[in-house]
Amino acid sequence: MFRITNWAAIVFLLLVFACNSSKKAVVNQSLIQNNTTTKKVFLFAGQSNMEGRADADKIPLEDVERLEAVKHRIQFYYNSEPVSPLKVTTGSTYVQKKFSLTNVFGPELFFGIELAEAYPNEEFIFIKRSKGGTSLYGAWNPNWTEEKAALTNELKIPKLYSEFISLSRSVLDSMPKNAYEICGMLWVQGEADTNTKRGLQPSESYGDNLTTLIHSVREEFELPEMPFLLFQVGGGKVVEGMLKVAENDTYVGMIPQSSDKKSKDYYPKNPSPLGHYVTNSMKRIGTEFFSLYQELYVNEYLTK
Q: Which residues contact 27 (CB under 8 A, 6 or more apart)?
């Protein structure tokens, strides 16, 4: 874990932070202080690539062994399933039939492995609500309306933002407040809002809707500086909105993606029309989420 050796160093670090307005790392102090009595909470939400479409049966044995070594330190609350150690999940009947997959995983798996390996004395809680094919304009909108849901053909889809908050509250409210700390939220969503067949409003308003989502979660949990990390998906106005939010909010970080196969930011997908990430890509996404979190919110001014 990270250690500060004397009070002078602590004062110096605080002064440096106060004088710098760029994205810097002094949120989640207890994550750094080896406070094993406080469980560290991470929230996960989004559509299919957050839900998990990567083939878990292709995870290398060495990574399966890594998961086995750390999974019992990560309580995993996923949709309506009973709590379990961090694990791969069984695809729904729809997913198994459409994608010819049985066991799947999302970004939380390798984010969790990296996190637990980096902090071997800590315990974690992961809370994830996800559903494929859903939009921020409609189902995920904190300001949900029938009109918005109708535009995105989501009147029969649950109000996912409300369900996400309810799930999180049901987990956290059962614990003393000093028993946990929310350390950040990970978001993978944007493909549905990019689809112009649903109209231009979802894509053109994506940045504003993303800002509202972030503000609403922070307000709900009274954490105005809660880190929020997202992976670039979708295109056009949706990506423009993501970039604008990341640029304007100190506590928002974004993993870039490129369609150029020669780029380091290229993530191979399953062939069209599926468009979901292959096993190694999803592993990279989870790992990149961890690296970004470390870069922005832990490592900048603190040394091991």
A: 183, 225, 226, 227, 251, 297
Q: Could you identify the residue written with the tokens 């874990």?
A: 1
CA–CA separation, 62 vs 263, rounded Å? Answer: 27
How many beta carbons lie within 10 A of that of residue 111, not counting itself?
Answer: 27
Per-residue three-class SS string for 67-134: HHHHHHHEEEEECCCCCEECCCEECCHHHHHHHCCCEEECCHHHHHHHHHHHCCCCCEEEEEEECCCC
Alpha-carbon distances, residue 256 vs 173, 201, 289 (angstroms): 35, 24, 11
Mean pLDDT within 247-273: 95
Q: pTM for this one?
A: 0.89
Q: Could you tell me the maximum CA-CA distance found in the chain, to the nearest angstrom?
A: 61
The confidence score (pLDDT) of residue 146 equals 97
First to last CA, the chain: 6
* Residue 246 backbone phi and psi in degrees, to 5: -65, -35
- Provide the pLDDT confidence category of residue 124 given band limits of 50, 70 and 90: very high
Q: What are the structural domains of the chain?
A: 7-297 (3.40.50.1110)
The CA distance from 41 to 122, in Å, is: 11
Rounded Cα–Cα distance for residues 2 and 119 (Å): 9
Query: By three-state DSSP, how is residue 225 classified?
Result: coil
**73-119, pLDDT tens digit by residue?**
999 999 989 999 999 999 999 999 999 999 999 999 999 999 999 99
Asked if 210 and 234 count as a contact pair (C-beta separation under 8 A), the reply is no
